[in-house]
Each structure stands twice: as C-alpha cells, then as structure tokens.
C-alpha cells in the first residue's frame, strides 16, 4: 500500500486506488498520514474535522469515519481483511495510530532526501546536494493535499510543507548556479520567480542566470520590475545585496561568471557582491 500527500491525496495498491470518497473520511485520513506512526488524539481529530463546532454525536460519527477508513484499507490486497486493517489503524487510549511502513508514504521519502541534501550541503558538495534536492522535489505532484478540505491542523501542515518546498527549490537553484547550470535551469527559475514576485532571492537568481546566459538587458528589466513591485507593495527599496548585484550586472563584473569550478562567489542576493 502506498500513500501520497505531496499533491492530491492518494492511497493505492498495485496501481489501484482504495481512497475513501467521502470528504470527512479523506480529511481524517490525511490527518493520520501527516502523523504517520504517531498518536492522533480524538480531540485533535475533532478540532480538525469540525473546528470547534462538533455534532452532538461526535464520538460515534468519528468512529464511523475510522471504520470506513479501515474498510478501505482492508479492501487492498496488501491488507486484505478488517483484522489486518485494525493492525494498521490502531485504536489507542482516546486516539488512533496509523502505522505506515518505510517508503510507503511520499512525505517520509521527502524528509529522507532533504536530510541527505542538507548533509551534502554541510560538506559543500553542490552536485550531490542538487541531486538529492531534485529527487525530493520530483515527489511533488501539485499543492500538498490540494483536493482535501482542510481544517486548522491540516492548513498549518500544508503551509509548512509549501514553505519547505520553496526553501528546498531555492537552495537547489543556488547549488545548480554554482555548478554552472544556468542554461539548464533558466526557464524553471523564471517560472518560479514569476510565482513569487517579491522574493528577492529568487529574483536575484533569475537575474544572475539571465546574465550568465547572455541576456544582460533582460536581467536589468527584472531588477526594474522588482524595484517597482517592492515600492508599490511594501514602500521600500530592494535590499542592499540585490542593489549590489544590479550594479555588478550593469558593469559586467567578471566575477559574476564564476561558479564552484572557479571559486565561491555571489550566486544570489544572499551573498554580497564584493
């Protein structure tokens, strides 16, 4: 049985979906998966499903949802019976445990790959860091739990996941720019930068990639657009680091061409152009 939350919610076995169809059951299953192999208290489940306004029959209703999830699990060949489903979705003391084996949930694989990428980052191994982060990012199939109605607990988790996804994306781009892959990732950086127009780090990476690809004029246009945007939205100027990068592009500073193969120089606005 395989589960997925980095995109639409999935639960399948040998390519066949066994996902519950009722919205509340899917919402509860998502909560269990986000806490895979950890205890989920009844109070937490009630807060997620009903946000402080539970029905009078809240406990029997919750138990019915759990039963339906167990039936969906039991329908899969991997489990095959309600007895086995009870071993997978365990009733504890005023709560539940959903036991998920390693490599059965995309979130677990994401966490492992990101941890390996961070370790490569500590070793200054940009090539390995980029490989691990690319594998991690390939697990995403769209917005996390994009087809599940979310209560307060799921919303908090989804926001955290999306922030982590963006952070890993930025650090992957940084490593690839240091490796000299600007032609390969130029279009992708542009797409992500367009989705986050006030993110100075992304705009800086896009400017640098454009410059290295021989598109100095376009790089300067990106800076002018950002300057207008931050002035209109926030009433401030771009950061000093970004302004220094702009000046370096204007003067065609030779150091902007440097990558890891030469020496570590300013690949983004996080590192000042000196």
Automatic annotation (TrEMBL):
Known DNA-binding region: 1-100
Q: Does the keyword Zinc apply?
A: no
The family database entries (InterPro entries) matched by this protein are listed as: AfsR-DnrI-RedD_regulator, BTAD, OmpR/PhoB-type_DNA-bd, Sig_transdc_resp-reg_C-effctor, TPR-like_helical_dom_sf, WH-like_DNA-bd_sf
Assigned keywords, A-Z: DNA-binding, Transcription, Transcription regulation
Stored PROSITE patterns: OMPR_PHOB
Per UniProt, residues of the OmpR/PhoB-type domain are: 1-100
Q: Which family does it belong to?
A: Belongs to the AfsR/DnrI/RedD regulatory family.
Protein name per the record: AfsR/SARP family transcriptional regulator
* Naturally occurring in which organism (per UniProt): Lentzea kristufekii
